[in-house]
Amino acid sequence: MDNPLLELEGLPPFSRIKPEHAEPAIDRLLAQSREQIDALLRQPPPFSWRNLIEPLELIDDRIGRSWSPVSHMNSVVNNPALREAYNACLPKLSDFATEMGQNEQLCAAYKAVADGGEHLDSVQRKLLENALLDFHLSGVDLPPAEKDRFKQISQELSRLTSKFEENLLDATNAWHKLISDADDLSGLPQSALDLARQTAEQRGEAGWMLTLEFPSYLPVMTYADDRKLRYEVYQAFATRASDQGPQAGQWDNGAIMEDILALRHEQAQLLGFTDFAERSLARKMARSSNQVLDFLNDLARRSHAQARKELAELEAFARSRYGAGDLQAWDIGYYSEKLRQERYAITQEELKPYFPETRVLPGMFAVVERLYGIEIRQVEGVDSWHPDVRFFEIRDQHGELRGQFYLDMYARPHKRGGAWMDGCINRMFTGQVDQLPVAYLTCNFSPPVGDKPALLTHDEVQTLFHEFGHGLHHLLTRIDYPAVSGINGVAWDAVELPSQFMENWCWEREAMALFSGHYQSGEPLPDEMFQKMLAAKNFQSGMQMVRQLEFSLFDFRIHREYDPQQGGRIYPILQQVRDQVAVIRPPAFNRFAHGFSHIFAGGYAAGYYSYKWAEVLSADAFSLFEERGVFDRQTGHSFLCNVLERGGSADAMDLFLAFRGREPNIDALLRHSGIAA
Fold first, then answer.
1. Which one of 399, 454, 483, 608 has the minimum C-beta count within 10 Å?
2. Which stretch of DSSP H or E encloses residue 202?
3. Long-range CB contacts (< 8 A, 24+ apart) of 390-397?
4. What pLDDT sits at residue 557?
5. Across-strand partners of 392?
6. Does 225 score more than 80 pLDDT?
7. Contact, 581 vs 296, CB < 8 A?
8. What is the DSSP secondary-structure string of 431-493?
């Protein structure tokens, strides 16, 4: 069979990839890889970088290149056949990874290269150091029976995390509400009404259709005057994939979460760690569980009083202006927006006409062009998975091609929610391969409606800048070995530094002039509106801070405190965390954890704190631009050379020190957040 997934040159031929191609391609590549690795290990000694490590990097890369389009399409154009093919491959890939990780002969060969006296540069040594740690974390040191158990657990975790994400996607897609009377949608801005009407039309209905996709959900929670409607939509969203709400029990992730926590704990203990939180820190900047908890608790102490004060102000406002007492979770967004409007006379909705995608995208490119001396341009005619997708290339000031990326911006059915960046192809330059990096940038913004371009909220502009920061980290790397190039090999609690760092330019007037302008007139964002935006920037920042700390502490504690005798105690621990840091109490039916895919299906297990940790790095890094000028080319060049280009080739703290000249300081984050130090 002609199989496009085995064409490992150039870009993936997405339009030709079918679900039935996935399993045969993976089977063939895994069989070839096993044969090639056996042959490498049989060669006469000594092992060297050239005869062992480079060929192994190439083997890994070939598997990654074949699997990447399958995994990506499963997230962005999901369907039953693709899902089945994806799930059929997961255990095979998991088996292979564990088998290689537990291969004692292979581990010994890596050690031989590391200790062999061959001249190796710092990048090569970092790759070997990471690889030897990965062998240990894969159970290479375990006795045979425990190795087998480790392998079983890895397989099962791969299956369960995929099932968690599927349940959440199915639950999100299954719920909708058709509204025939416009009065029921009183308060919703025109853009939300237009989207709801377009959604109904696309599904062959008359009226307005609400869904649980974020561009539909958020306007209801923020603007809908009808409290019953807000409650209904909130309940449906907050109970997705759970034992509560309108779909109770249909796609319930409850048992899956328990199994995931149990298996992670068991696997961590097999490796000699006390718990999964400790195991998670083996590859992070933070050195101990106590250091993470001290960091989160310190932020909680500094921000909790302000959060309480902000909530009290909101309650007083809702009571005095609207006679609304006893605010519930589905009221907070609505009255917060009313208070924001009264206090600052500015709304996200008013700002949207000034952030058309047609200005934001080229403007964002202009920002990074000024910072790093690069040029970004669209390339037409590139094969992709959906008509909405666009393709771009990045060249440096000498015209040299540095990387390419796909951009998939709009929400649609059968596409996973949220925003993310992922690698399609890794940079690799060896004796045999010249390969530039390619990335996927995925968002879920409201699509264009009618003849209007897509209009973004300022929050969405920040999301786009954030994901593009991840993209630049992957695409601008100068490191030639995939295992430590771009985002690969970067400590997980430092991987958010380049992304959060980019968000800072969303608040700078000089930068905003590049990426804003009215979609009809082209008029720049009026200074009066900009000043109101700045004034409103830290509106309820204390409440936002404690909400993120709630998620971080909950994630860390359920992994640190897991007890096989008591099970996950997911909601009791969440309640304890809320008692400590939360100011808003959700209702008893809320099942937030059932939809917390970052930790149950993504890579953030016992690592959600990374967002706050990296925010400290980001704010402190940006403070150097505040001192020298937000487009200071020398400082931009330094960040490019010391952080973006270096990828995972050195310790994250060493790279930060090289750029900032000192260790990170929390003061800049508190200042940027409007929280007293």
1. 399
2. helix 190-202
3. 394/475, 394/476, 397/373
4. 98
5. 378, 405
6. yes
7. no
8. SS-EE--EEEEEEEEPPP-TTSPPB--HHHHHHHHHHHHHHHHHHS----SGGGSTTTT--TT
- 440-461: buried (b, 16+ CB within 10 Å) or exposed (e) per residue? bbbbbbbbbbeeebbbbbbebb
Token readout for 379 is 């390339």
Alpha carbon 353 to chain centroid, angstroms:
27
Average pLDDT of span 385-391: 98
Q: How far is residue 40's CA from residue 499's CA, in Å, rounded to a whole number?
A: 39
Cα 536 to chain centroid, rounded? 26
Collapsing DSSP to helix, strand or coil, 107 comes out as helix
Q: Residue 676: is its pLDDT beyond 80?
A: no
pLDDT of residue 259: 98
**Structure tokens of 230?**
């807000």
Q: Where are the alpha helices (DSSP H) in 77-183?
A: 80-101, 104-115, 122-137, 144-174
Percent of the chain with pLDDT over 70: 100
Amino acid occupying residue 178: L
The reply to whether omega before 587 is within 30° of 0 (cis) is no
pLDDT of residue 677: 58
Give the confidence band of 674 by pLDDT, cuts at 50, 70, 90: confident
Nearest to 452 by CA among 517, 386, 389, 520: 520
List the domains of the chain with CATH numbers: 4-101+103-137 (1.20.1050.40), 175-238 (no CATH), 254-345+541-608 (1.10.1370.10), 352-536 (1.10.1370.40)
Distance CA 397, CA 377 (A): 13
pLDDT recorded at residue 293: 98
Q: What mean pLDDT value characterizes the chain? A: 96
Instruction: Please name every residue paired with 524 in a beta bridge, in sequence order, or none if there are none.
Output: none
What are the residues facing 210 on neighbouring strands? 177
- Contacts with 165 (C-beta within 8 Å, 6 or more apart), sequence order: 416, 597, 601
Helix H or strand E segment including 211: strand 208-211
**Contact call for residues 107 and 142 (beta carbons, < 8 A):** no
Mean pLDDT of 136-141: 97
Is the CB of residue 501 less than 8 Å from the CB of residue 512? no
Task: Please name the amino acid found at residue 304.
Answer: H
Listed residue (380, 417, 26, 355) closest to 191, CA to CA: 355
At residue 434, what are phi and psi to the nearest 5 degrees?
-120, 110
Q: Report the greatest alpha carbon distance in the chain.
A: 83
Is 57 in the active site?
Answer: no
Q: In what helix (H) or strand (E) does residue 392 lie, and over which residues does it extend?
A: strand 390-395
Dist. CA 573–CA 444, nearest whole Å: 31
This prediction has a pTM of 0.94
Cβ-based neighbours of 629, under 8 Å, separated by 6 or more: 635
Catalytic residue among 310, 467, 503, 615, which? 467
Across 244-263, b (16+ Cβ under 10 Å) vs e yields bbebeeebbbbebbbbbbeb
- Condensed to tens digits (0 to 9), the pLDDT of residues 153-205 reads 999 999 999 999 999 999 999 999 999 999 999 999 999 999 999 999 999 99
Determine the pLDDT at residue 1. 66
Helix, coil or strand: residue 212: coil
8 A C-beta contact, residue 417 and residue 444: yes
